[in-house]
Amino acid sequence: MTPNAASSSGPSRRSFLTSTAAATAAVAVGSPLLAACGGGGQEGRKEGATSGKEAAKILPAFVASSVVTPDIPAKNGSAAGFSRAIPTAQLKTSVPKTLGSGGKLKIMSPFWGTPPKGDNPYYTAMNKAVGVDVTWQNQDGVTYDQKLGAVLASSEIPDVVVVPGWNLMGRIPSAVNAKFADLGPYLSGDKVKDYPNLAAVPTEAWQRGIFGGQLRGVPMPASYVTDIAPLYRKDLFAKKGYSVPGSPDEFLAWAKEATDAKSKLWACDDMKWTAFNVFGVLSGGDKALWWNLEGDKLVNRIETEQYLEALEWTRKLYAAGVVHPDAVQGKAGGDAGNRFTAGEVLVYNQNISDWWGKTAEQRTQNADFEMEAFDYFGPDGGDPTLWAVQPANIFTFVSKKASEQQVKDFLALCNFCAAPYGTKEFMLTAYGVEGTDYTFEKGLPVKTQQGVNEVNGAYDYTGNPAPYIAYPDLPEITKGMVEWQQRMGAFTKKSSFFGLTVTEPARWANLADDFEQLEDDVVRGRKKISDVQQAVSDWRSRGGDGLRDWYRKLLDDNGSAD
Length: 562
Hints:
Belongs to the bacterial solute-binding protein 1 family. This is Extracellular solute-binding protein. By secondary structure, this protein is α/β, with parallel strands linked by helices. Helix content is 35%, strand content 14%. The chain contains 21 helices and 19 strands. The strands form seven sheets. Strands 3-2-4-15-7 form a five-stranded mixed sheet. A four-stranded mixed sheet has the order 9-12-8-13, with helices on both faces. The chain starts with 12 loop residues before the first helix and ends with a helix.
């Protein structure tokens, strides 16, 4: 699981990269879930990846959007920032004519919560604007992997299917190759220019949409800068006169000083994911990112000294009694954020979107509430070494059985939903119908209760613009988040399989599944570092070295994506 992720709320990118006055739970999109990443080799193969010259032949041309200029341009892999609401009269148009034919599409998608009725004003307005009659087959996001597996194993699948990256396990990757259409004939090279908003999607995100040697998935783009940030109570730090620690040793010393268990105050929650970034551990985004070519040897993250050092430092925090007891008992979940806002912990790590989510939530109750993300430091207090996460981790596919017109209608829908912030199309997609789903209050768009219930999920997955952050209700947080990404991006490296969607051979796909639990046991003192070293030795003998050879051949044959 993502550290401290709330299980009741799903990854809706617009839910935390656009703003309403009411706070909503924010969950990582590019979550560091320890699951096999899916993808494919050449057509007819069930494993591998496509990069280099072969990928260049099928990737869409990139044409940056000039419709709207962000307040804070993207830099060092960051998102672009939009810090103000755009009045309706000033909204731009990115889709000047309806591209859909009026045809019908059935779309299966994960949904967290109670799906709205199909004839609601939001869906009706979207169908009319896009020119496509969409019927949503929303499925429970918590058990979506089970439903997805059953549907893909059947002979009949919906016209369009959303597949989160963390569900690309078992037989699902090969089913993706077998049952979904090649979009290359419609999008490769200059063909994408028929869909200008899709042409503005970064190439590295499209690279992730290559499955089975063909461009099959429309990706949800994301910043490649680590999405897990160490968040701290700036208001309480100021009240107590604390400075933000600048090294692992300083953090431990500060944590001992700050913790007062009798007053129910602890310095931090579980900090394992922060430790991985501090000590320069290869990204945990997906298992392909666990590998990196160091010199002439391909090394897995679990084999590195940095991995052991990160676990040892986290273990020291637990041993010192500075971690909240609920985290000690393994109660990470969504409660870590609640412990943070309640003032029981001063630092926790979570998706950086929580910076806005928790602030918007708390400002309605506590005007003095203030939080920020502090910058990562290296093991010695110097500059950190950070590793890029994947630039897309949710994909939408169209069935091989779909007609040519249905494929075009699907792309028309994706192009509409990929409209940038500051356009009419964006406002409809993200907020719904003005006057029904949202109104303007003090110059800010605010969802009505109907909007909260209906404009939620669904169209989040069928097309997204290049990464952006837009919180017009809290512009200082928009600025803070983008600038944090820019600073951290300056220290971010791309590992050998960055940007590639890789399907591991089935015989090795679950080889490292037990390491997450082992990590948690070690940091809590239930296991020892020596147990990790033994597990790594076992991993090598049970197939890790064979998997290394397979990845090395993949790299030698295809090259990296970067």
